[in-house]
Write a structure and sequence with these properties.
Blueprint (H helix, E strand, L loop, with lengths): L16 E5 L6 H11 L3 E4 L2 E2 L14 E2 L2 H9 L3 E7 L2 E6 H9 L3 E5 L2 H10 L4 E6 L3 H11 L4 H16 L6 E4 L3 H19 L10 H4 L1
Parallel strand pairs: 1-7, 1-8, 2-7, 3-4, 8-9
Antiparallel strand pairs: 3-6, 5-6
Helix pairs in contact: 1-7, 5-6
Length: 214
């Protein structure tokens, strides 16, 4: 399958797409930031959202923060690979961001909810879905409450949504348990490296052997 494009999404043979999902409070953002330090070759696809920034989040780095009018315009122009309403706010993945990275021969890592992950998988069948969770529901609940970044109403929405999100993790390619941050980062790093080997894309780096590879 080296150097071939998928029939639906057209991922070039040199590229891969990794999609990361997690319930609120699982520590997905912390894991992702650390993994991207290990993998500068990956392009992080910045999602669009209508929610307000939290803490130290930066526009264009963590998310593209937009108003409802602009989000509606993206929908009207069919500029999203996927979009969904999550905890009362809208999130979407821009086709242009993903395609720009693929056109440069870069692999992409995305951060989406479960609905978005399966929509991306439908568009890009070779995408690798990875779910990050905590060791137990009790720990997830405790982490989310201690985060103290939500209004009581939004906190309850996130807590009530968690069981539905976790029920989907069995359909992912991999599950990473974020018990200790360093361990979770190491697991995700190993998955990325293993997928490179499993897919055969490593062959493309062996320039001196290319004449033997056909």
């Amino acid at each position: 399958m080296v150097n071939q494009e998928s029939a639906s999404g057209g991922i070039p043979g040199r590229c891969m797409i990794f999609v990361i999902s997690a319930p609120s409070g699982a520590g997905k953002t912390s894991v992702l930031h650390r993994v991207l330090e290990y993998h500068p070759e990956l392009v992080f696809s910045v999602s669009v959202t209508t929610r307000q920034p939290r803490g130290n989040e930066r526009d264009g780095i963590d998310y593209h923060f937009v108003d409802d009018k602009l989000f509606d315009e993206y929908i009207r122009k069919e500029e999203f690979v996927e979009w969904a309403v999550v905890h009362g706010c809208r999130y979407g993945t821009l086709k242009s961001e993903v395609q720009a990275a693929l056109d440069r021969g870069r692999s992409v890592i995305m951060d989406t909810d479960t609905v978005g992950a399966f929509a991306i998988k439908k568009h890009y069948p070779e995408a690798v879905l990875i779910f990050i969770t905590t060791p137990s529901p009790e720990i997830l609940d405790d982490r989310l409450r201690k985060r103290d970044t939500e209004s009581p109403e939004r906190l309850e929405k996130r807590l009530s949504a968690a069981p539905k999100e976790i029920a989907k993790m069995k359909d992912y390619n991999y599950i990473v348990v974020n018990d200790i941050l360093d361990s979770a980062v190491s697991r995700l790093h190993c998955i990325i490296e293993a997928e490179k080997l499993r897919s055969g894309r490593v062959v493309l780096t062996l320039a001196e052997w290319r004449k033997y590879l056909g």
